[in-house]
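Structure in, sequence out. Go:
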């Protein structure tokens, strides 16, 4: 699988955040672009898990969260595997990241993506072939 971009959870969540209208508009634009070019954007099982938990935490029902996850499941999804975990641990050590951020980076690497849309990593930094892009700057 080779995609153009990988989405971190926070970017997807902003697409549904009524309290952050500027970020919501940016996120919605990116999400709409991804839907129009479906095979060029990827997420991971971790992103789907985080999306579910945080969507419910923000006051939505588990049923609504499950429907949202079901929709995003139509995107290319990187599965959690032992190989991905080992890559994540390696990237954690190399870049001094939290394990969770390293796992997102590992999934972006596994997808073949060159860009990772996220607020959690240093904007513009190349992490071994995947560049962090904070679309809200």
């Amino acid at each position: 699988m080779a995609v153009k971009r990988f989405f971190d959870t926070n970017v997807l969540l902003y697409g549904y955040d009524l309290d952050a209208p500027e970020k919501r508009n940016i996120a919605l634009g990116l999400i709409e672009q991804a839907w129009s070019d479906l095979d060029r954007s990827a997420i991971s099982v971790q992103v789907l898990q985080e999306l579910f938990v945080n969507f419910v935490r923000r006051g939505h029902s588990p049923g609504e969260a499950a429907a949202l996850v079901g929709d995003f499941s139509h995107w290319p999804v990187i599965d959690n595997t032992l190989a991905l975990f080992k890559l994540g641990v390696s990237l954690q050590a190399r870049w001094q990241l939290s394990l969770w951020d390293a796992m997102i980076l590992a999934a972006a690497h596994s997808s073949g993506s060159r860009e990772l849309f996220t607020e959690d990593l240093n904007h513009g930094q190349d992490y071994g072939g995947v560049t962090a892009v904070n679309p809200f700057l």
